[in-house]
Structures are given as structure tokens and as C-alpha cells.
């Protein structure tokens, strides 16, 4: 993917303040087209009409586990880059994420929003 193109980012997190903070940060830059979802089932439904370059996906959500959401994203559009977000650095969850196709993960709370953006750009540069 050409990094000069508009990047379509989906943010999925049941914690609304985190969702809003990420959406506000990325929406300020015209190179990002941002969609945010507090329910992973709504994001999965959106895949019928949208393809995302990157999905920032929380691991722990009540409606549907992040690992299962990851599996469903990969079934629908395998090339989508997925970065898992977690406040719980469980080795099992991280290993399961990678096994199911996640490209990376970020620990919450974030050190900075710029670090999240840097992680997205790094993941997009991966083969």
C-alpha cells in the first residue's frame, strides 16, 4: 500500500473514552479516514460495505472477544492489518492474537497517541 493514500482505520473498543480519544486524534489528519465502533459486531457488519487498511482492536470486549473478532476480520478480508489493544499483557492473548493473524499489539494506557500512529505506520510497512 502506498502510504500517501488515504488510510482507512477502524477503531474497535468498548471503552468509549478511549474510542473517542483515538477517533479525535486520527480524524484531525486528512490522510486518515476513521470509523469507530464500541461494539465489535457492528464493525464486522460494516465489513460488508467497507474495507479497512488497519483495525485497532481491543482484546477484551463483552459483546465478542477480540480474538474471535480478529478471526472474523481475517475471514472476510485477510490483508487487513490488525493491531490488538490490551490493558492486560497476557502472554496467552498476545500469542493467540499473532497465531490468528494480528500484526502487532499495543498496551493500554498508551504512552502517547503519536506512538499509536507510529505503530500503525510500522505495521503498514511490513510485507
Report a brief summary of the structure.
The protein has helices at 16-27, 40-46, 66-76, 91-99, 113-125; strands spanning 7-12, 32-37, 54-58, 81-86, 104-107.
Can you give keywords for this protein?
alpha/beta, globular, 41% helix, 5-stranded parallel sheet, Rossmann fold, 5 strands, 127 residues
Structural summary, described in words:
This protein has a single domain (7-125), classed as Rossmann fold. The protein is built from five helices and five strands. It has helices at residues 16-27, 40-46, 66-76, 91-99, 113-125, and strands at 7-12, 32-37, 54-58, 81-86, 104-107. A five-stranded parallel beta sheet has the order 2-1-3-4-5, with helices on both faces. Strand 4 (81-86), helix 4 and strand 5 (104-107) form a beta-alpha-beta unit. The longest helix has 13 residues, at 113-125. The protein is globular. The mean pLDDT is 92.
Amino acid at each position: 500500500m502506498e502510504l500517501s493514500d488515504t488510510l482507512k482505520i477502524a477503531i474497535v473498543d468498548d471503552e468509549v473514552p478511549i474510542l473517542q480519544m483515538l477517533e479525535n486524534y486520527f480524524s484531525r489528519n486528512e490522510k486518515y479516514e476513521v470509523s469507530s465502533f464500541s461494539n465489535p459486531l457492528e464493525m464486522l457488519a460494516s465489513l460488508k460495505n467497507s474495507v479497512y487498511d488497519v483495525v485497532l482492536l481491543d482484546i477484551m470486549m463483552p459483546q465478542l472477544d477480540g480474538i474471535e473478532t480478529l478471526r472474523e476480520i481475517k475471514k472476510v478480508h485477510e490483508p487487513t492489518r490488525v493491531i490488538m489493544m490490551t490493558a492486560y499483557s497476557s502472554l496467552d492473548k498476545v500469542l493467540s492474537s499473532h497465531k490468528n493473524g494480528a500484526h502487532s499489539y499495543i498496551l493500554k494506557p498508551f504512552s502517547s497517541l503519536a506512538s499509536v500512529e507510529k505503530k500503525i505506520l510500522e505495521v503498514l510497512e511490513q510485507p
